[in-house]
Write a structure and sequence with these properties.
This protein is mainly alpha-helical. The protein has helices spanning 2-28, 33-63, 69-99, 105-108, 111-128, 130-133, 153-187, 195-224, 229-236, 238-256, 258-275; strands at residues 136-142, 145-151. It comes from Caenorhabditis remanei.
Length: 295
């Protein structure tokens, strides 16, 4: 149990480092700014989501009962809102990759428009999470084991169908725009200015699509076949699986994007040297983030 929680804390710390690197990239490279701005704010929400899921796992396995119900209620609501931000935000990233294959890309994803897209994402996620506010969690002690039920059932189903609906929209938008971006890169590779990075970031989009397609399958199968052994196992440990899917964004952007790997490596080296007392306070810390690679 303790190693599992330690692993979760390490994953949150790793994702936080990735977000720091991404923030530096978006602040210093105007060409890359639109995509990395989207990733930065979605990443911040993902970190909050991961912390909420960590609490839900801890409450389920260790605390049990309704001792700290207000915190559990907030974290439960946050998991719904943050997941919708993740889905809608990653859909925007897929559209951004297709837009980046055109010279007018920065007109469609200017600073003001990117801010407007993010604002709309948060508003849509908040509106879609309203049913979760009215869910009631009832705790029961059965044979010495704590369990809980969520009521009313119709409200639980409504929230589930809203999430499934957004996921279906995402799985229509993200693959279509990723494929179209890939075709433009393949057919117009000499005329597309940013083709190299488009290749690698498309891999990031594909990894997210595959990962969350598995979650969509679970959500659908749980509605129609809740007694299936595999579905029951995933349901019992759902917070752990969802935690993995959320922090996967941080790992996939590192594995698929050279400039993020370089920035993360330099950040880790810098922090390590600072911890050993080998870094002078007069040295500029911005050298950590001098990452190379074309957008």
């Amino acid at each position: 149990m303790i190693p599992g929680y330690a692993m979760q804390v390490m994953c949150i710390a790793f994702y936080s480092c990735v977000v720091i690197v991404v923030h530096r990239i978006k602040s210093t490279d105007c060409q890359a700014a639109p995509f990395y701005t989207l990733f930065f704010y979605v990443g911040l929400v993902d970190i909050g989501h991961a912390c909420a899921l960590f609490w839900m796992c801890f409450e389920h396995e260790v605390i049990r009962g309704e001792v700290l119900y207000p915190i559990t209620f907030i974290c439960s609501l946050a998991t719904c809102f943050c997941y919708l931000v993740n889905i809608i935000g990653n859909g925007l990233m897929a559209i951004n990759r297709y837009s980046a294959t055109y010279l007018g890309h920065h007109q469609h994803f200017s600073k003001n428009r990117t801010t407007a897209y993010l604002t709309a994402t948060f508003i849509l996620a908040a509106i879609s999470s309203i049913p979760a506010i009215f869910r009631e969690r009832t705790y029961l002690l059965i044979d010495g084991e704590w369990t809980f039920t969520l009521t009313p059932i119709w409200l639980i189903h409504l929230q589930r169908y809203i999430i499934i609906g957004w996921m279906i929209v995402y799985f229509i938008v993200a693959p279509v725009f990723s494929i179209m971006a890939w075709l433009r890169i393949k057919n117009f590779i000499h005329s597309v200015r940013y083709h190299k990075s488009d290749h690698t970031i498309i891999y990031f989009n594909v990894a997210h699509i595959i990962c969350h397609f598995l979650i969509l399958c679970f959500e659908i199968f749980e509605v129609y076949k809740p007694d299936n052994t595999l579905i029951s196992f995933v349901h019992e440990h759902f917070y752990v699986f969802l935690f993995g899917a959320i922090v996967f964004n941080g790992f996939s952007i590192v594995f698929t994007t050279k400039r993020v790997r370089q920035g993360l490596t330099k950040l880790v080296c810098r922090v390590t040297e600072f911890g050993r007392g080998k870094v002078s306070s007069s040295n500029p810390t911005t050298q950590i983030f001098q990452v190379s690679g074309r957008f």
